[in-house]
């Protein structure tokens, strides 16, 4: 009898192992090591699950702990395609979740989670509960397979976003991060970027650290970073850069301390100019040290001042559109000037008419006033008085005409100056 009971228990135990349905997995509350956003080692109390292996049966295991109030949960040496949903059910107040190296493919971030460590998985899809009402402050998704970050745009509390080593991501418009007004660290290292796209309308005023290293950037115009007025550290190393437009760096990035440019495709001539400019402005330019041909210890090549015209072509297109705009402005100004001239002409005509009428009136008055028979009167005297009057009016008239012309001339001159200064700017 007794042996049958034991046997029955044994069968249940076998079933429990074979079928995860009744698996109870318990975490251990302990000190756990991890790194913070500044790569500093940090030790904190986490409830740690170990050796949790699940495939499609991920819905079953029952995740437990001595207290279900634990807010920090970690998995080590574990494998599952999604974070087991029952974890979220049992622990309904998770604030930090550490699931690195778990083979996760689809990640769900619950609304209260503040820090999510999900690096080194196979993640292609991320969904965030609560849309804009989530609490997410730090999101680590390095070394995954993310192609699309549309789900990651509405994160108003986010301070740290690490997308390093997601080479399928490709070019990302900085406008994608426009709602992350508290973001101070953005890591886009090795994300397959070939050019900078920035259509941000409002500045990201907290951003201090921007990592764009190990991409395929070829040239950079510092104006492209105008939306990050507090930027202190910019990483551009390991790209294919051969051209960088710097000036006026301090006006664009007043707080900048380092722009790391090692390991690019610099020609030594251009590198000499930009590195001197940066060093003169107190900006650090390298992390490593080049032993071969270098300028200020940054590698460069004398033979390959690279013939790559993309930069020049793009700049030319931009200045052409600028020129078109200036021409339009000038055309508008010109029309306004023509209107003014026409108005003056009308006024002038009216003046002349007035003047002629007045002269005629005076002449009539003079004729009427002349004594009918007075042979003593010098016939020329009145004529000469009239002539003086005439001269007076004529000179005043002239003066006005000259003034009008002068105005016309200066306006023409200033529009000519506009053109030449506009051209200077464009050049
Ligand atoms: C975006 O989120 C939805 C669910 O909210 C999910 O179905 C989809 O796979 C996610 N897409 C990506 C690319 O993360
Ligand atoms: C999320 O919120 C934004 C605005 O905050 C809204 O435009 C968007 O449609 C919302 N998305 C979903 C899936 O509710
Ligand atoms: C023409 O003369 C009349 C008065 O005679 C005056 O009111 C008017 O302002 C004058 N017109 C101009 C353009 O000076």
From TrEMBL:
Stored Pfam families: LRR_4 (PF12799), LRR_8 (PF13855)
Record bears the keyword Lipoprotein: no
Polar residues bias (residue ranges): 417-427
Family annotation (InterPro entries): Dev_Immune_Receptor, Leu-rich_rpt, Leu-rich_rpt_4, LRR_dom_sf
Region of interest (Disordered), residue spans: 407-427
Protein name: Uncharacterized protein
Signal peptide start and end residues: 1-22
UniProt keyword list: Leucine-rich repeat, Repeat, Signal
Organism annotation: Culex quinquefasciatus
The UniProt record lists the keyword Signal: yes
Any one Gene Ontology cellular component term annotated for this protein: extracellular matrix
């Amino acid at each position: 009898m007794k042996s049958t009971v034991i046997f029955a228990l044994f069968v249940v135990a076998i079933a429990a192992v074979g079928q995860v349905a009744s698996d109870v997995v318990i975490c251990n509350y302990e000190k756990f090591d991890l790194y913070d956003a500044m790569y500093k080692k940090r030790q904190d109390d986490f409830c740690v699950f170990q050796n949790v292996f699940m495939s499609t049966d991920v819905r079953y295991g029952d995740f437990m702990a001595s207290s279900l109030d634990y807010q920090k949960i970690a998995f080590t040496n574990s494998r599952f395609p999604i974070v087991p949903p029952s974890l979220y059910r049992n622990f309904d107040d998770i604030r930090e979740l550490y699931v690195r190296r778990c083979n996760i493919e689809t990640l769900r971030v619950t609304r209260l989670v503040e820090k999510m460590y999900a690096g080194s998985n196979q993640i292609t899809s991320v969904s965030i509960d609560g849309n804009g009402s989530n609490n997410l402050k730090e999101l680590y998704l390095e070394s995954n397979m993310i192609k699309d970050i549309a789900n990651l745009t509405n994160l108003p509390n986010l301070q740290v976003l690490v997308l390093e080593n997601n080479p399928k991501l490709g070019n990302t418009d900085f406008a994608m991060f426009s709602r992350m007004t508290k973001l101070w660290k953005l890591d886009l290292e090795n994300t397959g970027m070939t050019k900078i796209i920035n259509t941000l309308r409002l500045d990201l005023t907290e951003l201090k650290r921007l990592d764009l290293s190990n991409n395929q950037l070829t040239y950079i115009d510092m104006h492209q970073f105008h939306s990050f007025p507090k930027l202190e550290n910019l990483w551009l190393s390991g790209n294919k850069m051969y051209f960088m437009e710097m000036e006026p760096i301090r006006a664009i990035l007043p707080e900048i301390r380092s722009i790391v440019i090692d390991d690019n495709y610099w020609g030594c001539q251009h590198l000499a100019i930009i590195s001197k400019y940066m060093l003169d402005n107190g900006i650090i330019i390298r992390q490593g040290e080049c032993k071969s041909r270098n300028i200020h210890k940054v590698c460069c090549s004398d033979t390959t001042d690279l013939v790559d015209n993309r930069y020049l072509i793009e700049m030319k297109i931009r200045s052409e559109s600028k020129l078109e705009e200036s021409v339009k402005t000038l055309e508008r100004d010109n029309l306004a000037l023509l209107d003014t001239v026409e108005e003056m002409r009308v006024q002038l005509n009216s003046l002349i008419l007035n003047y002629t009428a007045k002269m005629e009136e005076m002449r009539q008055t003079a004729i009427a006033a002349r004594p009918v028979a007075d042979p003593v009167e010098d016939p020329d005297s009145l004529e000469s008085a009239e002539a003086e009057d005439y001269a007076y009016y004529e000179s005043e008239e002239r003066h006005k005409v000259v003034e009008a012309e002068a105005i016309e001339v200066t306006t023409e001159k200033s529009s000519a100056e506009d053109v030449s200064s506009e051209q200077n700017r464009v050049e």
